[in-house]
Amino acid sequence: MKLPGSSDEFADEATCRRHASACQGESTKRVGSSEVPIGRGRSVFSFLLPLIAWLVAAPAYSQPVAEQPSNARSADGNFIRWREHIIDDPALAGFLLSGSDGLVMEDLDRDGYEDIVSVHEFDSSYNSAVYQPGFEAPADGHVRIAFGSADPDRWVNITVAEGADAPAPEDAATGDLNGDGYADIMVAAELSHLIYLQNPGASARSVTWPRLILPMTQGHGSYIRVFLADFDGDGVPEAVAPNKGAQIPGPEDFARSTPVSIFKVNGDPLSGDNWQETVLGYYSVPQNSEPIDLDSDGDLDIVVGSRGEARLVFFENLGTGHLEFREHAIGIYDGSMQGFNLEYADLNGDGRMDIIGRSRGDLGWIEQPERIDDAWNAHYIGSFRPDTVTGLEIADIDGDGDIDVMVGSYSAGDRENDSSISVDGALGRLGWFQNPGATGKDWQRHDISRRKRGMFDKFIARDADGDGDIDFFGTRGNSAPYDGVFWLEQVRSSEAAPVFIPARSDESQEMPLPR
């Protein structure tokens, strides 16, 4: 029997409840949340035996994930643990920062240190994942920049856009659109436009950033993702974004199709007349449009994910120097993907790019076929159930030369207190899946933390502290007043110790795995 804290899921929930069962038809006595059998006519000692057995087994179940000793090891044999560091949160911001979603890293002020652009949806008072007929979300939100330094624990935070400029912002991208050498910012707002924020240069920390809401997007749907990439090779990035139709789609929104579009600027990006929209296609609640050289021909293609159709499509860049693409279906054998968060890597060493993502509620990958229009075979990596698979990032976490996967989940229940959800509900989990390499074994899951509240939508892998191993930057939502931006420091030690060291003593409740 695998105990919680090990890497594998329980094969059978009943197995996890049988530690003390002796025979069918016995009466039971409840101890905690388990039932311990009491046979008729037994001695006190015979009753104590199963009770003792239960008590020995219980800590593995009742101990919060964060407090369990790490069982993950690096290639050099050390145990892998994680220490949390706070970069931005309501206490640092001085106001109710909530609904932290996308983030991107870029050296915005050109001082040699990467900065963090993060977006915060301001949705702690309502559930932005559940359709409510007639509900109108407040047009509020924040776009923040954390300016970095030589010290990964020293950041200067500013708000660069808020309120009506950035209502329910969900994602951000960076790129130099005006050719001045400084990276600008494009933000996708779910209520309901794309906004361009022009980097003022050396004074980026102290002055208002000039801005433009792209006129063809204003009031025309809901933008959940945005990317900047140079698709036509002219040296100026284009924006590509899916319009999912509504912040919280209902039946009518799923029944219609909305566009995935490329937005190209010719001239000053602050002039609305200089922007043109090219529609790639229409889909039911499209939620991704990610630039990636999927066919390995040297130019950037686009992978689209549709929530309503539960499928992926691929737009092949024809490489003509113009915005010309050919659409391909990504047909998946024995699986499906909606494509909200995807990662890309050659996992089987055949020289072709594979896709990693949530598949039928679990984590999996699909194998690119030799002919790209043939079926992509689905492969299972692992499960977070009853928690979700939401945020993803790939990196060689254990230093053995292959790609592992960091995963974060999306908690259900109330976003401002812990009372509405139990250990068996969908909670906020952090964990990673260790690549078995050429061994042929299963991917091994290593849980880091499981809190009652937490949405972990995005991770970026970096060696933040320069010690030679991989750390992660991320955002956290669904957990006011603990939402914001953080980084996870990978800590290696020769002895096993608690797997997670939280940054705060006052926190949303840490939980064990479900029984």
Short synopsis of the structure:
This protein has 4 helices and 32 strands.
Structure description:
The chain is mainly beta and 515 residues long. The protein folds into 3 domains: 13-62, no CATH class; 72-91 and 331-336 and 364-515, no CATH class; 99-299, no CATH class. 6% of the residues lie in helices and 37% in strands. The strands form 8 sheets. The chain has a 5-stranded mixed sheet. It has a 5-stranded mixed sheet with strand order 20-24-23-22-21, with no helix packed on it. It has a 4-stranded antiparallel sheet with strand order 4-5-6-7, with no helix packed on it. It is globular. Residues 1-60 have low confidence and may be disordered.
Strand order of the largest sheet: 29-30-31-3-32
Alpha-beta classification: mainly beta
- Residues in helices, as a percent range: under 10%
Outline the biggest β-sheet. 5 strands, mixed
Shape: globular
**Unreliable segments of 5+ consecutive residues:** 1-60
Q: What's the number of domains?
A: 3
Tally of DSSP helical segments: 4
Q: How large is the share of residues in beta strands?
A: 35-45%
Instruction: Round the mean pLDDT to the nearest integer and report it.
Output: 90
DSSP strand tally: 32
Radius of gyration: 24 Å
**Beginning-to-end CA distance, first to last residue:** 12 Å
